[in-house]
Amino acid sequence: MNTNRTNKTNKPFKSRPPLVRLSIPNEFLWAFIGLILTIFSTFLDAFITNLPWTWLNQGVRSYSLGVTYQIGAVLLTGCMGGQNAGLLSQTAYVLLGLTWLPVFAQGGGWGYLLEPSFGYLLGFIPGGWLCGFLAFRRRTNLESLAFSAICGLVVIHLCGLLYLVGLSLFIPTVHQTIPISSLPMAIFNYSIIPFPGQLVIICAVALLSLILRRLLFY
Questions:
Q1: Alpha helix stretches (DSSP H) within 4-141
Q2: What pTM was computed for the model?
């Protein structure tokens, strides 16, 4: 009796390739790279150019996306380094900004806790972790990397939105930076306006991650 598993075409059943797991040194390396990328991309405006085949006639033109590359750095770290790298890099970034270096867009320090944007910075931690977790759950392909990055972005925005609501509802009026009447406008400014540009960045992150992972054989 033949005990080999076969499919309907009588071809030998092929098991799925094992999922990649990075070594601890590689995770720490990507965490460090992610931290550096996040710091520098905070101050680097994101842009796109006109289509390459129009460069000859129109020249190269750049168009701002209205956001920085910071989100891209967070999600790229997760896609390349996994969940631990995403978690460590963004935890270090937030702690550095609160206690030591002015690495946030408007400086740093404990006073940043009352900034409307701080919830999104906190969201980098679970967002980077989730992106890295999902990016290594399936075989490396463009769709899975894009899905991982989108999930990470959604978590970042959820954290940011919850923080905005918290600042409006639970902070004493004398210290309030976002009155309840201004909450809809804050949500519009911090989540709705930058979201399309961040989606464009996610497309670039997914493609770049795919290329790098192919080059690095994982």
A1: 24-41, 55-58, 70-99, 118-135
A2: 0.88
